[in-house]
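ugh ok fine here u go
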Amino acid sequence: NRELARKIHELNTLVELARAFSSTIDPDEIARLLMLTLSGRWTVRRHALLAWPPGHEPLKASRNVSDQQLERWRAMAGGAAEPLRDGEFLLVPLRSGDATIGVVALGAPATGHGYTQEDIEFCMALVAQASVALDNAWRFQDTLYRRQMERELELASAIQQDLFPKTMPAVPGLELAAANRQARLVGGDYYDVLGEPERPLLIVADVAGKGLSASLLMATIQATLRTLLAFPLELTDLVTRANGLLCGSMPGNRYATLFTARYEAATGALEYVNAAQCQAIWLQRGGRMELLEATGLPVGMFPGVKYESRSLQLAPGDVLVIYSDGVTDARSPAEEEFGLERLIACVSRHGGGTAQEICARLLEEVSRFVEETPQYDDITVMVVRRAPEQA
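structure:
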């Protein structure tokens, strides 16, 4: 009868503990409930639980034991699957699947009697139940964290989309078109058209890296350029000052390439600074092609850098294509890059269309080339076309 009563009591304890575990998703609370049950069952005054789940903060619940003891038990239980002894302490490994991710340590019972084999088996059952509850709690936390990150990324993506122009501004005698395809929900590419319609500033920038950090730096670049545009600066001074400000706000291993140009609607003159951005393609009447090389280093890398500008004259019908390296670096299923030569050929084939048509055709050809290959880098294209003279 006594043995039956003990078994019934143990079964009731397991049931009650399972109910308590099911009412919480807090690992600390699960650890507290387990140790309260174990210490109460055998009147243990010295006990501890230590867990080191991968990808989560370590979990610790202890009473009257030192940190040195905890570290020793962690080393002893590291690969153990069965209970161990350390002096007066009974050590029961905390398992997750086939891995040991923790240990429960119980000191000698206050009754003075040691742990029987039945006691050890019951203790193992309680610890195994706690292991399941802890696994569920950590998985639930992972799910909540992922969902929170997804919501935050979706919000960040919506905010970033608002940083791009809703529509391209109307510039007298000029056609403008631009598009951006991000490799992730948020990215580091940026394009904009700022300033007065008669003298707009055309911008394409590419922050080194991808994802959320790149998008934050992209927003910093936009804010910096918009702020400087309020001052009557020459183009080279504007980029030089932007570089100085960005050097103070960007991490040491981050920078951005930048192509910015100021267009004079009255004359068709265009002055540009290419801060290590891809070579812009200038398609002139008659089919002559010219690449606009870099005129300086990336911005945000070295303070005190001076930037040079160059000028060209856009004749009626001339086309200028500014793009990020996500275009030329796009890869086919065979790991072949789209490359500059294909882009030049594409511009040559479609250069007779409107700016919007040219931009759309370029992106279509890149999409056909990569097929179903996942996009590795952000893709940005801006097409500038001076309107042809009317016959």
